[in-house]
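re: ur question from the group chat, yeah i did fold both. here u go
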Amino acid sequence: MQLQRQQLFLIGGVGLGLLAVFMIIMYLNQQSKIAKEQAKQQYEAILKNSTPVLIAKKDIPAGTAINAEDLAPANVPNKYVQPQAVTSMDRISGMLTVAPISKGEQISLSKLSFTPQRTKGLADVTPVGKRAITIPVDNISSLAGMLKPGDYVDILAMIPIPVQTADGKQSAQLVVAPLFQNVQVLAVGRETGAPVKSADRYGYEEKKEVTPLVTIALGPKETNLIAYVQEQSKIRLVLRSPADSKVESMTPTTLDSLLQYILPPPPPKPEVVPVKEPPKEYVEIYRGLSKEKIELSK
């Protein structure tokens, strides 16, 4: 009998030990999940308050061609981001350093310049995988002649969309639609970035006329789209900062969306609560074998 009790105590102790181990494992798993979630939230907060930039992996002397192997991406807090800090390798591919860059230093456009390769013909400056297409522009689209080769622009299309009016007639509604963003300008007129003679032998600067043509770099499908659009509508070019390569989600602009942006929203209509009529009351009157219901007046 004593042996059976000892065996029961032993089995009970083992069971309690296994239960304690199971509870500890559950607790550790829960704490691990909490720690991972906190780390994820902290990482997202860091990304929200920082900007991805390129930094130098080693010392880069002046006059060196920019090489992707010498650079590395890094997230820098917004307050420590240097002016004109580069966020994309595409923007500085084929450029030279005009000043030495130290290891760990942010790559800034102020220390870079275009290489002589960019002063060659149009085919030489066209990126791989892109196509050069020329579009006609006016003084507004060319930004009063201040647009230069190497700039990046957004392209808007002003398209007349046929709509049906309330009286059943056809009308055209103007829609401003964002076509492409972060598009590289390859040439303005015949200028591709090559050094030109800006003054004659007497020191007078040559007057520069606003060109009606701008050549941009687009993908094969995009060139077909813009070729169709420029035959059907007007095109506007919007200049971007050289340090900004972000592509944002944009929606077309119509008269309705413009009015919604300008005018305040109407106040909400008050909710109309239907008034329930009180139930009618009747009285039953028996006259002989017949029964009659008469409504009680209020």
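okk and heres the other one u asked abt
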Amino acid sequence: MRITGNEPTLGRRYLVRVLELIDETSLLFILETNGILIGNDPTYAEEISKFRNLHVRVALKGTNRFEFARLTGAEPEYFDLQLKALENLLLAGISCHPASMLSFTTRANIERLKKRLKTISQSLAENLEGEYVILYPPVVKRLEEAGIMPRTTLSQTT
């Protein structure tokens, strides 16, 4: 079971309640998050660590601060909170892995990200999941408006 979109960690109390309900089942729950709130507050990771059926997928927006800021419009230092979330999750004993948007980067930047992930845990670097933009018409429009063009994409299937 998975919740994705609209940053589910924003509703902390509601997310914890969902985890409580899922913990009564045998289902694995995959929490997809940008990780910023978990990176900013280690007690968040500690609070959700009590749930046995939880795996967290931290979706890094880019491979470094520059890409993060370009892709999100947010302050570059928030990228560091995404990495801190992975550290906080591991310290709390929570199963997790990183994913990163690779459509807008270079091979060299991917390798630098893997080196940085290794400083937290070898397994994070080994389990980095690549994400690639799918050029649906609304996505193309948003990218054009932002002046951002991907290096690699996945084709839209019909």
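fwiw on the second one: DSSP finds eight helices and seven strands in the chain. The longest helix spans residues 78-91. idk if thats what u expected
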